[in-house]
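Hi Y.,

Following your request, here is the sequence exactly as I used it, all 214 residues.
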Amino acid sequence: ASLPNIWPPQDILPGFREFFTKFYEVCYDAELEILRLIALGMGLEEEYFIRFHKNKDNQIRLLHYPPIEENILRQGKAERIAAHTDYGTITMLFQDDVGGLEVEDVNEKGKFIPAPYVPNTAVVNIADFLMRWSNDELKSTMHRVKAPPLAADEDEAATKHRMTRARHSVVYFVGADLEKTVDCVPGCWGPDRPKKYEPVNAMEYIRMRLQATY
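Below is the corresponding structure, written out as C-alpha cells. Let me know if you'd prefer a different format.
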C-alpha cells in the first residue's frame, strides 16, 4: 500500500495542500491523455494502458538544487543529479528556466543533449516499466542535471567562481496500479521477436528496483 502523505502545517504553508491536491488531479488527467496517445501510436485500443492506471499510484516530488560553483559542475567534481532512468511508466517534469537538464541521444550512448526550459510545457520521459512492458519498443530516457549550458558568447573561463542559480522542478512519476501484473504489449513480440521479460507484478517490480538501488 502507498504511504500516507505528510503535509506541512496549514499555518506554515497556507494553501499548499489544497494546491497540490488539485495539481495532482490535473497531472492525472494529462497522464490519461498521454497514455491514450501512446496506445494509439502503438496500434493498440485507446484505453489499453488506462486499465492499468486506475488507482493513481503516482508520486509528486518537489526538487531543489542549491547554488553551486559552475566550474565544479562542468569539471565533473560534483553533479546536481547523476545520469539515470526512472522506474515507472512515464514521468512528467515541470522545470524552471535555470537549465541543466540533459537527455541522452538515443543514437549515441554517452552523448547528452540539453532539454531547455520551454514556457507552459512539461518534459515527458518514458520510464523503465514502459520499456519493459513494450519489450524495448519504447526506450526509457536516460537523463541528468548538470551545469546550465553556456551562452553563445561565453567560454568556461568566464564561469570561474560564478555560482549557478538555485534550480527548482516538480516531478510527477506515473506508476501502474500496484496490484496489476503486466505482460508484453500485443504487437511487440512474436515468432521472430521473443519476449525479453517475464510477466511482472507492479509492486514486485518496484521492490526489485528499490532493492537493486539500496
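Helices lie at 16-41, 70-74, 128-133, 202-213.

Thanks again,
Q.
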